[in-house]
Amino acid sequence: MKKSISGFSKMSKRKKLRWIVENFFKDPESVMRELSGYWLSNEKEQRILDGFSENTISNFYLPFGVAPNFIVNGKTYAVPMVIEESSVVAAASAAAKFWMNRGGFNAEVISTKKVGQVHFSWHGNPETLKTAFPEIKKVLIEATTGITKNMENRGGGIAEIILKDMTEHDKGYFQLMATFETCDSMGANFINSILEAFAATLVEFVKEDDRFIGREKEVDIIMSILSNYTPECLVRTWVECPVADLGTFGKDMSSEQFADKFCRAVKIAHIDPYRATTHNKGIFNGIDAVVLATANDFRAIEACGHTYAAKDGQYRSLTHCKVENGIFKFWLDLPLAIGTVGGLTKLHPIARRSLELLGNPNAEELMGIIAATGLAQNFAAIRSLVTTGIQKGHMKMHLLNILNHQGASETEIKNAVEHFNDKTVSVSGVRDYLTATREQTDKDSSTLSLKAE
Ligand code: MEV
What we know:
It is built from 15 helices and nine strands. The chain is α+β, with helices and mostly antiparallel strands. It has four domains: about 45 residues, no CATH class; about 190 residues, 3-hydroxy-3-methylglutaryl-coenzyme A Reductase, Chain A, domain 2 (Alpha-Beta Complex); about 110 residues, Alpha-Beta Plaits; about 60 residues. Strands 3, 4, 5, 6, 7, 8 and 9 form a seven-stranded antiparallel β-sheet that branches. Strand 4 and strand 5 form a beta hairpin.
């Protein structure tokens, strides 16, 4: 067995897979068959997928589901969701349906600015740099017109560049902090190209400008990169209705009691970071699923959301809730730097279909849909938590997974769902149940055949 190799990336996909199965698996032939069995039969589509990443040997499948009945700003959507966790799509669908009859979700894009930074050291006199900055700024903008032209034609471009003195944190540390409008694209490549051009232009300016003659060593670029923290690329989504319209919950909970418990549950996630983390995780169950389905960057969205949740120095709930003048209002403020053009959005065959399913929204409309799905997810989770508890719904799906894993037939699944309706689900419990019912069926059929003889 060889565990390391050189030149792996240059090998064909089949050879890569062959080398992997022969060196890391006990039964290479069957793993070879299995993993190559997940390749798409359409070679052209497979080549597109392989082009997204490096060293691909197969495809990793995740369920592509849909949550229908989502009303956002009066428009009805069937929201595409890619997620492996059971109950998430069911919960989003249930919350969408609940709010469908209570005015649906509202969404408002508050701002759409993206951010990027050139981090550099300035060893010279800070005042000389600050005085020259208005001129430097002009030169930076002029130097990047080749990159910004197309974006400007679409209504975007560089919004602002400021010089930030960070020397109180680290000796000589400065930043060029730039904001951008990137229209319907996420804009990562656009921003990073501009930032690198800014860095080169700054160095050139210092080299050439009379005020800095002989002092070109005073500027030292550290790095140029966009920031995934985009608090000014913000969407708000909310639901509201009279408390009485929330309905009753089970035998014992009135709508007033529900609204009170619900708001307290949200408040707890503002007070306690342990709860806030799980609370926000539930929101991202919905957010990530739509972000993935539309081939946006879910790591960027997650990183940004969590930073935003800690913007006042403590990690807190991303959602808020209040009851005022008899009206229940539940809302989410979330920075969402996403795109509907560029990146993989139109290249990934299923992402393309996801966007089509949503009526090919622009970035702002998609921000609203994604945020509404996150809010719906949070509503569904808290509603379960403060009423029946979360396990009831979870265990229903868990039961199906266990039954499928045990190779249960359709009839066995139907009977088991009925049997476990009022019982605790566990892997061993389901296994024992299946063994007992199968033994009983065998006994019954041998008694029948004895009778027939
Ligand atoms: C599970 O994936 C998500 C929840 O834990 C979220 C929550 O507790 O709010 C149900």
